[in-house]
């Protein structure tokens, strides 16, 4: 049990990677608040509760400061502290800059990047008071390399990597570590609208060896296990790192 007694917030936890992160953290002894804009997150949390895990759902729009403050208040009322924050929620709306509206551009940056500013600035003072904390921001292989017709998303993910480094630098001396996980293609519904522009998921997967040298997509639990390592004491000297979990996607 690597997270016994720890109190965590995981955003975008209704499904996909965030759900697996919440599950793995709770299995390792953490009390987890699962935040998501999708009310289905309540069912996701109930599923984990039935398995005996200490999770609570809190409906949250991470792009709204009022909603984020309410999330932090709820976590504090429930658990009396916050040791771990995983900023995972994001949107992925495809298009070149000529295909995207200003609204889509703004929404992408609000959900993917500004949310990390809002939630981290609400949580870090709590971590400062306790003298320690671990934050994981979910980047992407697109924090390092671009893809066609994905301009708002890839640029937001580039920003997240550098924001993680800036936060790590500012709070390292206070025992707060900040790292950025950069996944390759993880098998969730997240990529469907982008894949549709290139013939659909099945068509693209025919060439998966060209994309991921390991010859397969990545499972959400593989990202969750990386997050678990990064927030655990085993990673006590790791901060400001971009950790690629990309099946070799960015090797060449
Ligand atoms: N799936 C991939 O291939 C992949 C690759 C690299 C990085 N990532 C990153 O991993 C993270 C999770 O992706 P996923 O594949 O699990 O996607 P997903 O679509 O399965 O889950 C994303 C979750 O975020 C929630 N969300 C969206 N907007 C929100 C908001 N405003 N407030 C609160 N919650 C909101 C959604 O409701 C959803 O439950 C994202 O940051 C994504 O950029 C995914």
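Q: What amino acid sequence fits the structure above?
A:
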């Amino acid at each position: 049990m690597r997270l016994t007694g720890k109190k965590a917030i995981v955003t975008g936890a209704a499904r996909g990677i965030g759900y697996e992160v919440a599950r793995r953290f709770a299995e390792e002894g953490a009390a987890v608040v699962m935040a998501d804009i999708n009310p289905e997150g309540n069912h996701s949390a109930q599923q984990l509760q039935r398995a005996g895990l200490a999770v609570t759902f809190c409906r949250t729009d991470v792009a709204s400061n009022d909603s984020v403050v309410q999330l932090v208040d709820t976590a504090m009322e429930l658990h009396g502290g916050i040791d771990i924050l995983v900023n995972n929620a994001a949107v992925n709306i495809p298009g070149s800059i000529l295909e995207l509206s200003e609204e889509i551009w703004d929404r992408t940056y609000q959900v993917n990047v500004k949310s990390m500013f809002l939630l981290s600035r609400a949580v870090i003072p709590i971590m400062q008071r306790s003298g320690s904390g671990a934050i994981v921001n979910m980047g992407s292989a697109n924090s390092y390399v671009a893809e066609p017709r994905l301009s708002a998303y890839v640029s937001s993910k580039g920003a997240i990597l550098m924001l993680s480094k800036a936060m790590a630098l500012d709070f390292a001396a206070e025992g707060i570590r900040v790292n950025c996980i950069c996944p390759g293609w993880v098998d969730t519904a997240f990529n469907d609208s982008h894949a549709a522009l290139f013939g659909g998921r099945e068509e693209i997967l025919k060439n998966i060896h060209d994309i991921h040298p390991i010859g397969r997509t990545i499972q959400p639990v593989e990202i969750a296990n990386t997050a678990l390592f990064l927030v655990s004491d085993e990673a006590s000297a790791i901060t400001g790192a971009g950790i690629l979990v990309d099946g070799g996607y960015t090797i060449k």
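Q: And what stands out in the fold?
A: The chain is about 45% helix and 15% strand.
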